[in-house]
Amino acid sequence: MPSFRLELTYDGTEYLGWQNTKMGPSIESVLHEKVHRITREAPSLEAASRTDRGVHARGQIVKCTLASLQEPKMFQKKLNAILPYTIKIKNLTEVPSSFHPSLDAIGKEYRYYLYC
Question: What is the DSSP letter of 6?
């Protein structure tokens, strides 16, 4: 099964964080729906870490596993064309199925900005 490494950037203002929830929209649910729309299959999505409600990301790494092979550049282009303006894929590459978004990370950086 082909696997892809997606580097996402998003404005999380209108989302309830990364993880699927029945309480409202999440980054994961939107990405899942858009990948399904293009491929007609249910992708397996695994993020390097979860974000909370309203949190933004500049380099969230996500592994997307599909049953069918996709050409990475065209897949990225198609996804970015239908994703909302608040979510974009900065980079998309094919990776080995053994790739793990958090275990294979070299590091993580969190920045907190507070506006009073």
Answer: E
